[in-house]
Amino acid sequence: MNSQVISVGDRVLLYLDSRRTWLVLLKDDVSSFHTHAGIVDLSKVVGRRYGDSVETTLNERIFLLRPSVLDFVMKSERRTQIVYPKDFAYISARSGIHSGSRVLECGTGSGALTTYFASLVAPDGIVRTFEAREDFFEIAAKNIEKAGVKSFVSMQRENLLEAKVDEGDYDLVMLDTGDPWTLLETASKALKGSGFVFSVCPTTNQLENVTFAMEGKFVDIESVEIMLRRMEARVGKTRPSTRMIGHTCCLASGRKVNGS
Q1: CA 115, CA 40: separation in Å to the nearest integer?
Q2: Are 22 and 11 in contact (CB under 8 A)?
Q3: Rounded distance, CA 246 to CA 37, Å?
Q4: How far apart are CA 156 and CA 87, in angstroms?
């Protein structure tokens, strides 16, 4: 069980409000953290409990929260568009991955989805992820380590098409590449019977191509787009937010069948 007492070496989410949060690592040689809401004395954070608060030099109240996996994802370094939490939830619910599951991912990117999957399959499962670009690979490695899930991830800097993958070994194959249809044969071989393949498709052209290519090797083929709109909940004047994250991607998915 994780300790509620905050110690040197822990990461803490400093929470001012829903728009202003900071993820910090407590170190012996770092005594303060500067924000526009004032300076946080990090020496006063050590020894407190998650859920406590401290005041900045400008008398703003900052809450000390334990970072969730989504905090790590949304605060991760990235050079590419990430798959958003709204899509994470659907992928994990439909595929049913859990502790002990084995996931094969092509297109690590910044490691956002990798991090989320690793948090689900831990401590007995593994996410094996492939990324051909060195710059993306290095950024993803840092983000995965920062989130504390490195032990449940196997990273390979190579093209999945050129890699050796055990057949019938995976519960989920996740494809986040520009041409996912070229990897469906590999995905089918890697999956257990009834296992899921998911493809992230930013455009409808990609969605059409990959779903058409799934026919014959997969059933229960589905194409969805997940939309999320926040509500401004205030006494007497609750209304939908005027801003929202619109289109991020479409998701194509199917289940492997044998002997086709």
Answers
A1: 28
A2: no
A3: 30
A4: 24
Q: Where are the alpha helices (DSSP H) in the chain?
A: 69-74, 85-95, 112-121, 134-146, 184-190, 204-214
The structure's pTM equals 0.86
| Domain co-membership, 35 together with 150 | no
What burial class does residue 63 get, using C-beta atoms within 10 Å of its C-beta: 0-12 exposed, 13-18 middle, 19+ buried?
A: middle
**Rounded distance between C-alpha atoms, residue 204 and residue 224, angstroms:** 11
Task: Output the six-digit token pair for 151.
Answer: 């032990």
Task: Give me 156's structure tokens.
Answer: 């390979």
Look at the chain and count its residues. 260
Q: Are 121 and 97 in contact (CB under 8 A)?
A: yes
Largest CA distance in the chain: 68
User: What is the 3 state secondary structure string of 20-73?
Assistant: EEEEEECCCCCCEEEECCEEEEHHHCCCCECCCEEECCCCCEEEEECCCHHHHH
Is residue 5 a part of any domain in this protein? no
Residue-number span of the structural domain to which 46 is assigned: 11-67
Tell the residue number behind the tokens 């996912």, with chain if given. 180
Query: Same domain, yes or no, for 60 and 180?
Result: no
Residue whose pair of structure tokens reads 């401290």 in the numeric block: 54
Q: pLDDT digit string (tens) for 132-186? A: 999 999 999 999 999 999 999 999 999 998 888 999 999 999 999 999 999 999 9
Q: Is residue 4 part of a domain?
A: no
